[in-house]
Amino acid sequence: MRRPPAAPGPATAAPTCAGALPGRRAVLRRAGRSTWPLLAASVLYNAWVLEFVLPTGLDARHSYVSELFAADQRLHVLFGGIEIVTALLVAVGAFPGAPPGGGRVPADRWALVAFAASSVGDVLLPMRCAPSVNRACEAVNPWHTGTSALAHAALFASMALLIVASRTQGGRWPLIRRWGPWVLGAALVTALATVGPLFGRPGWHGVPQRAHLMLVGTWLALLAAALRGRPHHR
Asked: For residue 77, what pLDDT is reported?
């Protein structure tokens, strides 16, 4: 008489389930560690709105936001401190933990860290004065302009790399795939619209710059939502 096949015991079925669930939970924990720092950074990145309630003495239409923490401004410690905290939050959001399986950290995360480091450089090498209210002040501070250029290059690199990854990594990050190109395009246009003073054409550059900062804040929030909704595991 033939015996019925033995049912699979715990030794055969348990390892797959037991290994999968903790792994999934670990990925979710890593995604959560990215979400909150990036969300906080998206808000703090637009702390320039405080200029509407604080006595900065600057006209938001015709001044760079970096003039708020120029060396001769009375609130430079406040706005410079907020900029540094924001940069640290971005760096923490970029590195929520070691990549699963000991893999390499992707280039888009390194670009985010470069963006954060350059933003700190903006504060450590500030404008000496505010050119929008001081005619004797130089519109172009070589060191500060250099760190700002690096920050923008790293920011746009991270955006482009993440958008490409959203289209090539098996359908991950649908929010970035759908909205990322629009945010990137608008951020590029508004950034280019701020360079007038660098070519001796000051005036109204504060409006597109503040629009640019709002778009960057939107990008950070979008990235936080995308990582929360679809954990990143390459």
From this structure: 97
Sign for the pseudo-dihedral over CA of 174, 180, 183, 186:
negative
pTM over 0.90: no
Residue-wise pLDDT for 115-147, tens only, equals 999 999 999 999 999 999 998 898 788 999 999
Q: Give the pLDDT score at 227.
A: 79
User: In this structure, are residues 42 and 217 in contact, taking their beta carbons and an 8 Å threshold?
Assistant: yes
Mean pLDDT of the chain: 84
| Category of 69 on φ-ψ map: left (φ > 0), alpha (ψ -120 to 50) or beta | alpha
Q: How many CB atoms lie within 10 A of CB 62?
A: 17
- Rounded CA-CA distance 36/62 in Å is 33
Amino acid at 179: W
Q: At what angle do helices 142-168 and 107-124 cross, to 10 degrees?
A: 160
| Start-end of H helices in the chain | 10-44, 76-94, 107-124, 142-168, 174-192, 206-229
CB 194 within 8 A of CB 216: no
